[in-house]
Recover the amino acids of this structure.
């Protein structure tokens, strides 16, 4: 079986957030992640998809094959929006910090649930967040 | 948007989540439950998440909100059937749901709320059974 080409999925509604979870679940299972690791990366993706939808004003999600140490293959999920951006990334990543609509666990939780976490954001220029996970 | 049905069984309200929860569905469920608790005078709420394969911070917060809200209306909430992978993920996410009562399954949840499950497995049958020692 060949892996599907990287496809970009729009995130513009609550239904799209649900769809992101389903796509990430399928990709995580196909990559050979354990049930617990699948659940972790789907949960991280759910947090990030909600951020993209609610705070980024909508955006896109893309699933990539991620090559790790010693050529191990896992998955990477990249979220992008052209929203207002995050003025203080350090603060946004600190646990409990919230923009006011949640528990403040979205970004920090997604980072804890992933093996790799990258965030790039600039005020006025949108936000890109990538999380990756590899089979143990 | 799908709505999650709220079923009444005696003095209990039962919610069994069988759909992929989007945020609007979660918010609607909170409101529906608040109304049904008042309308029925229910003393307990059971939320069955056996079929739920992920609980993120938004869904987790719903459990805490429903538990606090129902307590204010004199009803106890029990979340039942959490999958092991979901529990592990929730803790790592940073949500321990300290204020939410849980039980392994529906039957245990009903017992916790002081309601014998229908068909009473531990009643007459056990007393009459050959291995029914107490």
């Amino acid at each position: 079986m060949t892996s599907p080409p990287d496809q970009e999925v729009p995130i513009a509604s609550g239904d799209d957030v649900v769809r992101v979870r389903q796509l990430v679940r399928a990709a995580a299972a196909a990559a050979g992640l354990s049930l617990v690791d699948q659940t972790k990366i789907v949960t991280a993706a759910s947090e990030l998809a909600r951020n993209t939808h609610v705070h980024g004003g909508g955006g896109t999600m893309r699933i990539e094959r991620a090559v790790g140490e010693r050529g191990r293959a896992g998955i990477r999920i990249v979220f992008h929006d052209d929203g207002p951006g995050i003025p203080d990334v350090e603060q946004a990543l600190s646990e409990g910090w919230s923009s006011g609509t949640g528990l403040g666990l979205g970004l920090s939780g997604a980072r804890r649930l992933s093996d790799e976490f990258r965030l790039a954001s600039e005020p006025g220029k949108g936000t890109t967040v990538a999380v990756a996970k590899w089979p143990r | 948007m799908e709505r999650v049905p709220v079923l009444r069984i005696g003095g209990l309200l039962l919610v069994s989540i069988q759909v992929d929860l989007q945020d609007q569905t979660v918010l609607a469920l909170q409101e529906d439950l608040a109304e049904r608790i008042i309308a029925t005078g229910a003393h307990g709420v059971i939320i069955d998440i056996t079929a739920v394969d992920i609980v993120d911070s938004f869904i987790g917060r719903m459990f805490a909100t429903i538990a606090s809200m129902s307590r204010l209306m004199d009803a106890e909430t029990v979340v039942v059937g959490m999958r092991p992978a979901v529990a592990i993920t929730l803790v790592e996410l940073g949500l321990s749901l300290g204020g939410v009562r849980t039980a392994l399954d529906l039957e245990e949840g009903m017992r916790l709320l002081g309601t014998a499950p229908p068909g009473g497995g531990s009643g007459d049958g056990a007393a009459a059974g050959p291995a029914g020692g107490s």
DSSP finds five helices and five strands in chain B. The mean pLDDT of chain B is 88. Residues 6-116 of chain B form a domain with the Transcription Regulator spoIIAA fold (CATH 3.30.750.24).
